[in-house]
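Carboxymuconolactone decarboxylase family protein
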Amino acid sequence: MLTPLPAEDWDDQAREALASTVPPERRNPDNAGNALSTLVRHPVLAGAFLPFNTYLQKDSTLPGRIRELVILRTAHHHGCVYEWGHHSAMAAQAGLTEDDVESTRSGSAADEFDQAVLDAVDELHAGSRISAQTWERLGLRLDDQQRMDLMFTFGGYSTLAFALNTFDVQLEDGAGTDEFYASMES
């Protein structure tokens, strides 16, 4: 539906949309990746959304492992290949095992707390709220701010999945590999 913004159309406004969240060397059509290059078609929206998304991914109070459980279960619910491709690799870096990643597909985790996290995402997806029982189960390890971040992670990554799926953003070749992320950092 929407392709990445062509290189000849990148301008200062497109680069500025990425300025608060993306290092200077990635603020161009060759290094931004397909999602960012598509989002900068609407630089004002990208400039508003990306700081929130960056907070969810890097600065939220959720432990990285829990964050990736939430994101992968969200990506699974929305059938978002792009999110799944990137975050399955990030999940491994955050300490998730292959079995943990598989649990985000099946919705069934061996660990009781992981199950509470998956249940919370399922409840948000199905009914737009976490039940009191699941909220209490999450409270065994997460404080109120972390539980709030869990909800907003689901919401933020659902919004991103809606966009990525609707725009038909293609997963980059090599995404989901350590080599891909090393090349994005250099």
